[in-house]
């Protein structure tokens, strides 16, 4: 099993301090490292996507990540994956993204924040919170319903 970045972070902080105290390590979870370990294989460097493989995460999606509905949709995609036809930045995809639910809430919040703020350049966007991810975990949808959520969130 891949060790959790969050746990490694807590361990390093604990050793450095020489104390067993709960440090606010979640704030330090490295979204860029998670992206490089997992997402980059499909979404490419800079999350610009690749036609036929995986969509860009830094176009419309990041620009509209100020909308609560878009944020909820993104959190839902990382916890349950996505499949079926979508159109992104004028490109058609009909592929499968595997669920990333094995990552912790902190890791998934950090990687989405990295995508939108770091790679997408949306400096004003609020960071994703672990609670956004746990809320998504509590929701289960069919791939079709999730694609309908996408349309509703990005449309208009
Ligand atoms: C194995 C390849 C793969 C990996 C790894 C992967 N994705 Fe995806 N992702 C996809 C594909 C393919 C789609 C589009 C699925 C479809 O065609 O319906 C997608 C869609 C998405 C979407 C929705 C895009 C949109 O326009 O609606 C988000 C958000 C996303 N991925 C984020 C991530 C993040 C963050 C990670 C890393 C934690 C990640 N993905 C890892 C392949 C991948």
Level of helix content?
40-55%
Topology order in helix (H) and strand (E) letters:
HHHHEEHHH
Shape verdict:
globular
Mean pLDDT: 88
Small molecules bound: heme C
Low-confidence stretches: 6-14, 18-26
**What is the second-level CATH architecture?**
Orthogonal Bundle
Number of domains: 1
Under CATH, the homologous superfamily reads: Cytochrome c-like domain
- Major pleated sheet: 2 strands, antiparallel
Per DSSP E runs of 2 or more residues, the count of β-strands stands at: 2
Chain-wise SSE layout:
Layout: H1 5-17, H2 31-43, H3 60-63, H4 68-80, E1 82-88, E2 91-97, H5 105-119, H6 130-137, H7 143-154
Antiparallel strand pairs: 1-2
Helix pairs in contact: 2-5, 4-6, 4-7, 5-6
Bound molecules: heme C.
Overview of this protein structure:
By secondary structure, this protein is mainly alpha-helical. It has a single domain (30-154), classed as Orthogonal Bundle (Cytochrome Bc1 Complex, Chain D, domain 2), CATH 1.10.760.10. It is built from 7 helices and 2 strands. It has helices at residues 5-17, 31-43, 60-63, 68-80, 105-119, 130-137, 143-154, and strands at 82-88, 91-97. It has a two-stranded antiparallel ribbon with strand order 1-2. The longest helix is centred in the last third of the chain and has 15 residues, at 105-119. It is globular, with a radius of gyration of 16 Å. The N and C termini lie far apart (42 Å). Bound molecules: heme C. Residues 38-39, 41-43, 54-55, 57, 61, 74, 77-78, 82-84, 86, 88, 93-98, 100, 111-112, 115, 150 line the site of heme C (HEC).
């Amino acid at each position: 099993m891949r060790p959790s970045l969050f746990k490694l972070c807590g361990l390093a902080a604990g050793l450095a301090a020489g104390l067993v105290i709960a440090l606010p390590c979640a704030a330090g979870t490295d979204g860029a490292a998670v992206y490089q370990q997992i997402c980059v294989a499909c979404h490419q460097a800079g999350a610009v996507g690749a036609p036929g493989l995986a969509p860009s995460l830094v176009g419309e999606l990041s620009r509209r990540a100020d909308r609560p509905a878009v944020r909820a949709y993104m959190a839902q995609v990382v916890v349950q994956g996505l499949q079926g036809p979508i159109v992104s930045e004028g490109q058609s995809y009909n592929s499968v993204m595997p669920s990333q639910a094995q990552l912790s809430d902190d890791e998934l919040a950090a990687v989405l924040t990295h995508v939108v703020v770091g790679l997408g350049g949306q400096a004003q966007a609020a960071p994703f919170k672990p609670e956004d991810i746990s809320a998504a975990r509590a929701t289960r949808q069919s791939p079709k319903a999730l694609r309908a959520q996408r349309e509703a969130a990005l449309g208009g």
